[in-house]
Amino acid sequence: MPSKLLDIPARTIRLENEKPKFTGRSLVLLNNSVKPGTVTNQAKRASLRLASSLDYAKSASPDIIEKALSEADGIVFDKIRVAVLNEGKVEEIDNRRSDKSIARTFLNSEPERYVYAIQARGKKKQQTGFADNKAASWGMHAINVLSSRFTGKGIPVAVLDTGIDTAHPDLQSRIKRKRTFISGQQVMDLNGHGTHCAGLVAGFQHVAKKFRYGTAPGVQLYIAKVLSNQGVGTDGSILAGIDWALENKCRIISMSLGGEAEPGEAYSAVYESVAKEALASNCLIIAAAGNESERSNGLIAPVGHPANCPSIMAVGALDQQLAIADFSCGGLNPDGGQVDIAAPGVNIWSTWKNKGYRRESGTSMAAPIVAGLAALLTESDPKTSAASTWMQLIQQARRLDLPATDTGAGLAYCRK
Amino acid sequence: MTDYFFYFYAGMETMKFIAVVENKQEIDRIAEALRNMGCTIERILKRTGVISGQSGSRSLRDLAIKGIRSVEPERNVKKL
User: Which of A135, A222, A342, A371 has its CA at a distance of 20 to 30 angstroms from the CA of residue B26?
Assistant: First the structure.
């Protein structure tokens, strides 16, 4: 027992963690309408001598309770109408509760507790993190998708990017429709980025290794080439791609693209109008938050365009320790521009051009993973609205010990 | 004075724009009105009510005609 506790004339009850919980003394709630003098007199009828806190108001003692309790059976705090009684003294009152005036004065009692400063948690235990294994990529493990009985079967999902490797053995059968919005270029992806993102939505298993890396292998892919083979595009081609996806009744649009937003810059009213239209048409637009941060150098860039629109779900990127990725943009701008959710986005395995595979990092990788999860939710309840799917993604996210400005609701997580 | 310079410099170079209309039923009429102002219309997206194109000698402010909810310069975007 710590030596300090020896000074307290009270029994202590210890918990398993060796911190005593009760002092042995009692707190008694006093009737507000009874005058202080009456309290003292009623206590005398119970053979108790109570001091008043007012008597010690000018005391030089730093601990008036200890002083009062050493000189009397208890102390009355007149302002708050509470008395603290020494160990064993509350029984004197309880034994006389048949006396109506005593029962009216002393209302109820409870054991006095020790209280402790809430200790700051020690340094967070280093997480070992997620890793690829024979079954699946680390991202699939992190979002818990392997436990799902859904595959997004039949859900139309549009991927707006650099196109797709239309001959890729993992993706070929999943392409429902495709169209290019880039003048002079076919849908065939000569960049690789679009094929990577499409694989994260719909790629199932590596053809030879049987390795799972796609979130929703049952979806129907609608591929809109809105970025050139050089990986660049314009608002006009992207808006045309969204329009096409809505014409085709896509339930989800995944966009791993964007432009930098300046601090304080407002979101695009045109995109916001289109995104609202999409939600009203039961289509959820999910976009990458942006890669312009250099957090290791103290720089956090605001969520980019068009992910900064309030009606577009902005996705941040996490690494294998579920820490925010160094490059992932943050929710800095006050008018829109928040990060809504986060997903794996570092060292992510997926399909690539020329029937290939490779690892990539970026919020580009996080967005299609969330799009795939949205497809699973849509399959689980096909009549659900896009707004409801958004809400479910947020509600089912795994909370992280990270700022919401970086990861929104947390890690996108499969619970169905 | 400010307007003079605004128009002067705006007239030097055409600007690519995106716009969204208030009423999608009116989009063809509004696009035609923009054409008559000297704009080149590149896309009319009837599902979303978006018009994109080039402003010709007009400033962005000129393009905010009746029926246009919002008009902005077109941005470049890239893969992330």
Answer: A222
List B residues 40-69 in contact with A (Cβ-Cβ < 8 A).
Answer: 42-43, 45-50, 52, 69
Q: Quick check: A17 pLDDT over 60? A: no
Chain B partners within 8 Å of A306 (Cβ): 77
Sign of CA dihedral A51, A52, A58, A64: positive
The catalytic residues of A are 161, 193, 364
Q: What pLDDT, in 10s, does the model give residues A141-166? A: 999 999 999 999 999 999 999 999 99
B80 lies in a domain?
Answer: no
Helix, strand, coil share (%) of chain B residues, nearest 5: 35, 35, 30
Query: B70–A269: do the CB atoms touch at under 8 Å?
Result: yes
Q: Do A236 and B76 touch (CB under 8 A)?
A: no
Nearest CA in chain B to A183: B42
CA distance A66 to A253: 68
Q: Is the torsion defined by CA of B53, B59, B65, B68 positive or negative?
A: positive
- For the segment A211-216, the average pLDDT, to the nearest whole number, is 96
CB contact under 8 A, B42 and A242: no
Give tens-digit pLDDT for A272-304: 999 999 999 999 999 999 999 999 999 999 999
- Residue count of chain B: 80
CB pairs below 8 Å between A and B: how many? 103
At A18 the pLDDT is 60
B19: domain range? 2-73
Closest Cβ–Cβ partner in B16, B20, B74 for A273? B20
Query: Which token pair is A198?
Result: 């499409």
Q: What is the pLDDT of residue A259?
A: 95
For A270, name the nearest residue in chain B, comparing CA atoms only. Answer: B20
ipTM: 0.82
Which domains, ranges and CATH numbers included, belong to chain A?
A: 16-113 (no CATH), 138-407 (3.40.50.200)
Question: Could you check whether the bond before residue A306 is cis, i.e. omega within 30 degrees of 0?
Answer: yes
Give B31-65 pLDDT, tens digit per residue.
999 999 999 999 999 999 999 999 999 999 999 99
pLDDT in tens, A47-106: 899 988 878 776 666 676 777 888 899 888 877 788 888 988 888 888 888 888 888 898
CATH of the domain at B24: 3.30.70.80
B34 contact A CB<8A: no
CB atoms under 10 Å from CB of A376, counted, come to 25
Q: Specify if B51 maps to a domain.
A: yes
Q: Is residue B27 part of a domain?
A: yes
Q: pLDDT over 90 for what percent of chain B?
A: 82
The answer for residues whose C-beta is within 8 angstroms of residue A249's C-beta and 6 or more apart is: A156, A283
Min CA distance, B34 vs chain A (Å)?
Answer: 16
Q: Which residues from chain B sit within 8 angstroms of residue A194, using beta carbons? A: 79
Q: Does A161 touch chain B (CB under 8 A)?
A: yes
In a domain, B78, yes or no: no
